[in-house]
Amino acid sequence: MMPVSRERSLVTGANGQDGTYLVEALLATGDDVYAMCHSADGAERLRSLHPTVTATVGDLADEGAIHALIDSTQPTRVFNLAGNTSVARSWEYPAATADVLGVGPIRIYDALWKLSQRTGIKPRMLQASSAEIFGNAAQVPQTESTPRRPVTPYGAAKGFAHDMAGVYRARGMHVSTAILYNHESPRRPETFVARKITMAVARIALGMQETITLGNIDAFRDWGYAPDYVQAMMLIISREEPGDFIVATGESHSVREFLAEAFECAGVTDWHSRVIIDPGLYRPVDPLQLVGDPALLRSIGWQPQVGFTELVRIMVLADLELLRAPVAG
Q1: Counted domains in the chain
Q2: Are residues 234 and 274 in the same domain?
Q3: What's the rounded Cα separation, in Å, for the pair 231 and 228?
Q4: Residue 245: helix, strand or coil by DSSP?
Q5: Which of 89, 83, 75 is nearest to 105 (CA)?
Q6: What is the pLDDT of residues 20-75, one digit of tens each?
Q7: Tens of pLDDT along 245-298?
Q8: Which domain holds residue 179?
Q9: What is the pTM of this model?
């Protein structure tokens, strides 16, 4: 076997919020980057932005395609970020969620294990886990050892993949999990509440709409900045010993607080009259308070660079700039 001169990193879900930041970070470190995208358009878009990236189309539900991708790329590192990240959508498609988010990662574990047995390559894997695995946790903040009580199909599926990471780790595979709490950026789709808020607030500030309709604005979340969390994932996979790590800020803020910060940043003072509460937008079940304790991750050198107020500001200003930009053509 030829010696490895540099990392060959495979990123699944490469067109998502985290995937795009991760691809950029890996390229900056000099990795050979392979990307699995969910659509041909996504793969083409990625190639146009980063010509050195080898982008292919794939799906975690397709076991044969996963094995073929692992065998052809022979990666030294795999970051599994693939799968729909909408908790609300998991209630509409619970079985598909279980297959893609729960069983899908196991297809990667199995393919990597068989690659290592056949070739001697010892790939490392980072599984993107989720705070949703804790559900209505009795312990606040949560740690890596907090008992898990998922209350959504998304959380249950992620929990299974999380458990199986431990199974393969015990088998001798270098697989770690990043238990990711809410993390946002201007690249977040508007289907997620944080970006829905910042885009609507920007439109209200510019006189393009009058109100925003939301569900439960008294839900509390631990919100961080996506590029900070990508740096955490890279740090975790680089450790000699694999493990489970909570990636969080350790601070809890409500959707109401997010709204207040966003409107203040946009210069809108009478914001209470601009918010309409629709009980129909409440989730069937919502975790009471998800806030993580990142002490273990901090102990190995991670430190987030962007706090809550700055995160909201970054997103609002980006959306104001986006809406003010002239339309091409």
Answers
A1: 2
A2: no
A3: 5
A4: strand
A5: 83
A6: 999 999 999 999 999 999 999 999 999 999 999 999 999 999 999 999 999 999 99
A7: 999 999 999 999 999 999 999 999 989 999 999 887 776 666 667 899 999 999
A8: 8-184+224-247
A9: 0.93
- In sequence order, the 6+-apart residues with CB closer than 8 A to the CB of 206 are 320, 323, 324
Helix (H, G, I), strand (E, B) or coil at 10: strand
Spatial separation of the C-alpha atoms in residues 29 and 257, rounded to whole Å: 37
Residues classed as catalytic: 130, 132, 154
Q: Is residue 232 part of a domain?
A: yes
- Cβ–Cβ under 8 Å, residues 223 and 186: no
End-to-end CA distance of the chain: 53
Would you state the structure tokens that stand for residue 150, as one six-digit string?
């998922």
State how far the alpha carbon of 143 is from the alpha carbons of 257, 292, 294, 327, in Å.
Answer: 24, 6, 8, 47
Candidates 178, 149, 177, 153; CA nearest to 165 is: 177
- CATH code of residue 274: 3.90.25.10
Taken as a whole, the chain contains a residue count of 329
Q: Is residue 279 part of a domain?
A: yes
**240 and 257 inside one domain:** no
Pair 148, 257 in one domain: no
Q: Which residue type sits at 205?
A: A
77: domain CATH number?
3.40.50.720
Rounded-to-integer distance, Cα 175 and Cα 242, Å: 6
126: closest CA among 55, 76, 78?
A: 78
